[in-house]
Amino acid sequence: MADTSQPAPSGPHHRQPPSRRQFILRGVGGVIAVAAIGTAATASIASASSGSDLRASLTIIAPAAAGGGWDTVAREMQQAQRANGIVNNTQVVNMPGAGGTIALNNLAVLDGEASTLMVGGTGQLAGSIQYDSDSTYADVNPLALTVEEYSVIVVPGDSPYETLDDLMNAWRENPGAVPWSGGGSFDQLVVAEMAIAAGLNPQDMIYVPSDGGGETTQALLNGTVVAAASGYPDSVDQIESGRLKALALVAPEPVEAIDIPTTVEQGYDVTLTNWRLIVAPGGITDEEKSQLEDIIRETIETPEWQDAIERYTWNENVKFGTELQDFLESERVRIEGLYEELGL
Description:
Elements: H1 35-48, E1 57-62, H2 69-83, E2 89-94, H3 101-109, E3 116-121, H4 122-130, E4 141-149, E5 151-156, H5 164-173, E6 180-183, H6 184-197, E7 207-210, H7 213-221, E8 227-231, H8 232-241, E9 244-250, E10 274-280, H9 286-300, H10 303-311, E11 315-320, H11 321-342
Parallel strand pairs: 1-2, 1-3, 6-7, 6-8
Antiparallel strand pairs: 3-10, 4-10, 4-11, 5-8, 5-9
Helix pairs in contact: 2-10, 4-11
InterPro entries: BUG, Bug_dom1, TAT_signal
Keywords: Membrane, Transmembrane, Transmembrane helix
Organism: Rothia santali
């Protein structure tokens, strides 16, 4: 990685980047199942990455299966670039597994190949810590923060809990009687922050992970869990139908388009957001980095991208350069602290 692309990583969190032949398939659950996907996707990336004109062809890796938040960001960027002629040919490759760390490890292998990008985010940063990934954001080239998605604290529509205080008081009285659910690493961290804000030991909480919003809703409705943290876009239909009741939006301040009181407004300093990052491999030149940043800026200024922000109720939170690096470092420290609280 060129010294001028970003500060040279150092300290205990920097690891030597893997060799170009190495495909890291570490993690939990499903890693073996996605090995073939990872290999095929990498071959596709290598093919699409030939040539030096970054406006001719780009590949965007979504580090999860089709339909999730990372995939949605990748495909909305693809659509905006195609519709406005920003890039002639943008491809999206899905590379799921291990909280996004399989994609992160494979991106590190593509050192210097500037025509491959990846969507990252809070969950991937958490996964790299939780699974002790061989590659971290220090081994690649974070380019831009684009948007963030808010979580919502929900209970079943017929729950006796009418307010967040009702739920928190019951949780304090008997942590074992208030099991929670959510999908993936990010939602677990939100629940851990809720526990800390309520004065509970996160290690005492019962958390039942689910495989997405649909499974979380089912766990709430069949009584497996009492409450859940879930992405607002995944839950809004269930909230509007009355099947779920929203007690709080996990956000630092009120959101005009979402009529739900925030955690902060209700006295709980819980503000972790599910932000979306665009990342390039390490080893790219200053000129390539500048060109990629220009492409991202043009993309997020398009009507198509702005329409996506409105449709998915994303919050636009754009950061480049030093501001981005400082943000990522603060989030790494924050998430590592939450995992220590969880005893993981």
